[in-house]
Amino acid sequence: KQWYQRRVKWYTIKPKIAKLRADLDLIHKCMNTSRTDPNWSTYCVEPPASFSSTGNQIPSGRMQGVEAPKDRSTAATTADTFAIGDMYLSGYTTKCGPQTITGWTNSLDIYYSTTAVADSTNTYVSTGSGTYTAPVNGYYNICAFLRFKKGGNAVDVTVYAGGSVVAGFGDAVDQDWRSTGTCIIRLLSAGNTVYIRNNSGGGSDCVEETAWRYGRLGVYMVGPTT
């Protein structure tokens, strides 16, 4: 009796195993067949035309399910936003005494809104004034780095964001050159600017750039708030 029951169970399972093997064979062929191949529609199954989803979800193929929403890993994915600004000091230059650090070269100025699949044509990195302007409300990572010239008394630099000092760094060693900087995360409103200022009063307290790009100001959005 037990032998008979096992035989019946095997005959019940056998066609399911065969179907599974056939499906796996189709999946393997589908994965190795270009969509332009005439056999693609034979091996691969698309979701029905009546399939519907919400947001930026997409059908997941043979199971006709829904994948999780994509993040902004490519420019073609909307429903997200990102902003990046980066600039570096150009050529050989010194910035001695109290002043806003200007004379930058634009390296990156990128902004994608929640509805755009192309970079904005607006300018958010101003090389002349040395400022980055936040395009939208959000939390931004701000990184500022500079090189200080040998021979000065001390150089104290501050980072401004949204009209207020948000960070500072400097050099109190006058017998050597030194490069240093800092990074912080701050909440900015659309239109807030970020820049670096030398606050030292002495004429020999200098920021120095040698074309090795010690001096950099980089800002990128960590996450929007609206």
Q: Key terms for this structure?
A:
226 residues, alpha+beta, six-stranded antiparallel beta sheet, five-stranded antiparallel beta sheet, elongated
Descriptive report:
- A hairpin with a 2-residue loop joins strand 8 (155-161) and strand 9.
- The chain contains two helices and 13 strands.
- The relative contact order is 0.17.
- The protein has helices at 2-31, 40-43; strands at 82-89, 92-96, 99-100, 104-112, 125-126, 131-133, 138-148, 155-161, 164-171, 178-188, 193-198, 206-210, 216-224.
- Strands 3, 5, 6, 8, 9 and 11 form a six-stranded antiparallel sheet that branches. Strands 4-1-13-7-10 form a five-stranded antiparallel sheet, with no helix packed on it.
- Helices cover 15% and strands 38% of the residues.
- It is an alpha+beta fold and 226 residues long.
| Total E-strand runs | 13
What best-fitting shape do the alpha-carbon axes yield?
A: elongated
Chain-averaged pLDDT: 82
Main β-sheet description = 6 strands, antiparallel
Strand content: 35-45%
Terminal Cα span: 70 Å
Class from helix and strand fractions = alpha+beta
Number of helical elements: 2
Order of helices and strands: HHEEEEEEEEEEEEE
Percent range of helical residues: 10-25%
Q: Taking Cα atoms only, what radius of gyration do you get, to the nearest Å?
A: 29 Å
Question: Which regions have little confidence, pLDDT < 50, spanning 5+ residues?
Answer: 49-66
